[in-house]
Amino acid sequence: MAIDRETLMRRLIDSRRGLLQQGPIRKESEEGGCGVVGFASSVPVGGRHIFEPSIQMHNRGNGKGGGIACACHDPEQLGVEADTLKNDYILQIALLDPSAKGEVEAEFIEPFFNIDHKAELTGVTDWQELGMPVKPPDLARYFVRVKDEVLSRFASENGIEEATGREVEDEFVYQNTARLNLKYYSALGDKRAFVMSHGRDLMIFKVVGYAEHVVQYYGLEDFKAHVWIAHQRYPTKGRVWHPAGSHPFMGMNEALVHNGDFANYYSVSEYLRRHNISPQFLTDTEVSVQLFDLWRRTYGYPLEYVIEAMAPTSEHDFDQLPPEKQKVYGAIQANHVAGSPDGPWFFIIARSKPDEGMYRLLGITDTAMLRPQVFALQEGDVSIGLVASEKQAIDATLHSLHEEDPRFRLVADRYWNARGGSHTDGGAFSFTLHKNNGSSQLRCLDKFGKIIEAPEGEYAIDTKSEPSAPAGGEELIKALEAQAASEGARQCFAAVVEAIPKWNLAGVQWLAGALVKAAQKGDAEMAACLEALTLLNDRRYDPGSIRRSAILHVIREAINSILDSVPSIAEGGKGKFARVDWETRGAIRPPKEGERTLVIFGRDFPPEGDDNDARLGVKAYELGWKNFIHYGLKGQRFHGCGLGLNTQGVRIDVYGASGDYLASGIDGLEIRVHDNAQDQLCQITKSGKVVIFGDVGQAFLYGGKGGEIYIMGNGAGRPLINAVGRPRVVINGTCLDYLAESFMAGDPHKGGGFVILNGMAFDDKGKVIELDNPYPGSNLFSLASGGAIFVRDPHKKLADEQLNGGEYAEVTEKDWNLILPYLRENEELFGISVDDLLTVNGEKKSFSEVYRKVKAVKLDVLAKKQVPE
After folding, report:
1. Contact 400, 477 (CB under 8 A)
2. What percent of the chain has pLDDT over 70?
3. 241 falls in which pLDDT band (50, 70, 90)?
4. In Å, what is the CA distance from 737 to each residue of 163, 696, 698, 716, 728?
5. pLDDT per residue over 121-130, tens digit each?
């Protein structure tokens, strides 16, 4: 007779009583703000590809804690048979004291396990030469199964004989690890050894250092796996300068990395103690994975319920759930709220279930969305799902993979941010790899099981054959060359947009190549071709039978080719453009007569510091340059910063994966980002113009004082917090939550600031469409004391409970005359016409029927509303 889940749960918990660690749970913590990244690929890829995104997030680390985990390996690389890898546990012991190896084997391995294979891992390079402060531990690796008689005795002693064999064996391995750590690490005295990982087809490596040090030290550059995750920075609690305290942390068959820290670490630990579980390394990341393991493996909750227990749905989102989900979620929250992590956090989890041929990468964000995250999906001959603290880390991964395997494209099919506790997607997404008879299939699902897919269309880029001219292609190039001006570029763009639905991808490749060749004929042709390609990169249009991501891949490579061909600054004065890179940075000089634009190739510059490309731009500005193009970026930060006061007339164009803090503190200049922007965009901006041809990250315009900012897509969480003065902002998409919290921007009609939130998007055919909800969050204009938000909300979907300090009002003609010039500029920049915005269900409406105003409520009025008489 099979044991029921509740009985099994209670007996498993009871069996752990002897594992509780004695002594107080530490409360001290360190500042959060880590860098995390992970990806799951349909084909195995080497560890060098987790190296690149890790090194790009050094600002999120400090060299005192780094780690990686990998899952779904090649058995030949591990020196075992395929069945051994599938069935055995990979027990990895970190030997802080190498002499402890024999004792550990004699006491915790040999009596209990059949050992099918074992190996020792030591460093392949000198740890001091890598700049690591502490020598990484040697690792002893064992492929093991619990002995039959041991397993039978363990099941009998704990009353779980009726449980499945693997459930019992998992629990024995879990408890054996806890006992080993209690004796050799957690107990008072010397720390001699600990279990690095014990999962099936899953391994963890961690050091005192950076995440990429793990790859270098243990020689994992060519070690292949399907799933990789990485973490930069030490833990926020516990022993912060010790390999045992670095992320990832393990559950049973999962590894977890974490950006953030918990406000309720102590209460979560107490919740776990009631289930006979205690943290052995005293970190909030460790209790996170202990919670996950408890709810998933011990309670047997489906993944959706585990996510709900970790990130409870609340407020306005809870009210939007179907009644049956409200009932279940209410019960989960009532039973487990004491264990729900509170505070800023974001988890990436790698999971392995080799019995089912299933491997998973999971990202979960907290309901307050205090830590940044970006998800991405690319599908094709090879497929990959990615998640990271920053989009630039995703781009760095794709670039690294593409250089080795051109089946990976430089641009993902979809990018998005998650909104924790959302009723629409749950704020959590999984990339699940299914392996069956040698084939692999990757699928992306949200919390509720909804499938996320790439758009249909041609995606394979042929780099071997020469494409022929598509219909009308040669005429387009001739017309552009004849005009060689901005107007010619726009006419070329318009003609291409009309023609592309009739072309295939080879036609786009031919066009891009022809524009690159035409650009070599002179400065005017270069400027026109660059503008035409930039429009094709920036604007949305019908791609016909081709995926937009493939078109962008081709267009962006063509833009890079044109900019690569610009004469070096060392050659001097040969045209309107001059180019500088890392090798020629010492040749920087004032512009010569006729030179107008400095092109800076940022690929090899460090992401920040005195030697980064943004600082070189500041030096060039001081020498007299006014127009700049930064390209080839892979996360470099601070573009536009540091130029000082009154920089009107300066323009900066940014291509590639720009990093954080772009345009922060600017005063007058114009900057255009021809891709998504990252976090902390336009912090404390005073004045100027910023145009983003994509989405923006967390906390943009934090403390902003002015400027015009146009966002083609979405903002993530907490835009315009504490903004003052007169920022004028157009967001064509939406924001996750906390838009304009504590906005202090005065009266918009007397020079104050405002936000226009259009709640629109582009479908896969480039058509402007309404979002289901113009603003999904529970905190709109919270505690604002001035300014206004003008929201496109023709269906009146915004609710009173989304406000805390604001109120809805009709848009007057005076309001409309105020915002209309910004909507006209928005149309010019992005092609989103005012007519599109005023059209509802195919019918043109008046502005007052389409837009609503959110204005601040005076404090005395708000007080009466909150505390009625």
Report:
1. no
2. 94
3. low
4. 45, 13, 10, 7, 19
5. 988 888 888 7
Distance CA 711, CA 700 (A): 11
Element (H, E) at 494: helix 486-499
Among the listed residues 177, 186, 53, 104, the one whose alpha carbon sits nearest the alpha carbon of residue 635:
53
Cα-based distances in Å from 493 to 422, 496, 549, 790: 39, 5, 18, 32
The span from the CA of 808 to the CA of 796, in Å, is: 10
180: amino acid identity, one letter: L
- Comparing CA positions, the residue from 728, 737, 730, 682 lying closest to residue 704 is 682
How confident is the model over 58-79, as pLDDT tens digits? 555 555 678 899 999 999 999 9
Contacts of 621 (CB under 8 A, 6+ apart): 628, 643, 647, 650
Question: Rounded to an integer, what is the distance from CA 611 to the centroid of its chain?
Answer: 26
- Residue matched to tokens 């629109």: 760
Tokens 């790859």 appear where? 215
Q: Determine the Cα–Cα distance for residues 97 and 135; give it in Å rounded to an integer.
A: 11
- As a whole number of angstroms, the distance between CA 542 and CA 458 comes to 13
Record the tokens describing residue 47, joined without a space: 């560890």
CB neighbours of residue 165 within 10 Å: 12
- Which pair of structure tokens corresponds to residue 16? 């752990």
Please report, as a single letter, which amino acid is at residue 517.
Answer: K
The 10 Å Cβ neighbour count of residue 76 is 11
Neighbour tally for 106: CB within 10 Å: 10
Closest residue by Cα to residue 398 from 419, 380, 418: 380
Q: How far is 41 from 144, CA to CA, in rounded Å?
A: 27
Quick check: pTM over 0.90? Answer: yes
| Residue whose token pair is 């991405």 | 376
The helix (run of H) or strand (run of E) holding residue 807 is strand 806-810
Q: To which residue do tokens 């010019």 refer?
A: 828
Contact (Cβ atoms closer than 8 angstroms) between residue 34 and residue 214? no
Question: Residue 754: what pLDDT?
Answer: 97
- Cα atoms found within 13 Å of the Cα of residue 137, Cβ hemisphere only: 29
Residues 6+ apart with CB under 8 A from 687: 666, 667, 668, 705, 706, 707
Which distant-in-sequence residues (6+ apart) come within 8 Å of 251 by Cβ?
289, 290, 292, 293, 296, 297
C-alpha distances (whole Å) from 798 to each of 436, 491, 775 are 47, 40, 7
Spatial separation of the C-alpha atoms in residues 85 and 20, rounded to whole Å: 31
Helix axes 505-518, 473-483, angle to 10 degrees: 30
Over residues 319-377, the pLDDT tens digits come to 999 999 999 999 999 999 989 988 778 899 999 999 999 999 999 998 877 777 899 99
Q: What stretch of H or E contains 810?
A: strand 806-810
> Among 589, 591, 630, 587, which Cα is nearest to 612's?
630
Q: Alpha-carbon distance 485 to 249, whole Å?
A: 57
**Please, are residues 198 and 97 in contact by the beta-carbon 8 Å criterion?**
no
Cα(629)–Cα(99) distance, rounded to whole angstroms?
58
E strands present in 15-161: 35-46, 66-73, 89-95, 113-121, 138-146
| Residue 9 three-state SS | helix
Residue 495: other Cβ atoms inside 10 A: 17
Q: Containing H/E element for 401? A: helix 391-404
Rounded distance between C-alpha atoms, residue 161 and residue 600, angstroms: 68
Find out whether 602 and 613 touch, Cβ atoms under 8 Å: yes
DSSP symbol at 794:
T
Q: Which of 107, 342, 82, 345 is nearest to 235 (CA)?
A: 345
Query: CA-CA distance, 42 to 384, in Å (whole number)?
Result: 6
User: Kindly report the CA angle at 593 between 588 and 594, in degrees rounded to 5?
Assistant: 100
Is residue 209 predicted with pLDDT exceeding 90?
Answer: no
Sequence-ordered list of residues with C-beta below 8 angstroms from that of 695, at least 6 positions apart, any chain:
415, 417, 676, 677, 711, 712, 713, 714, 715, 716, 733
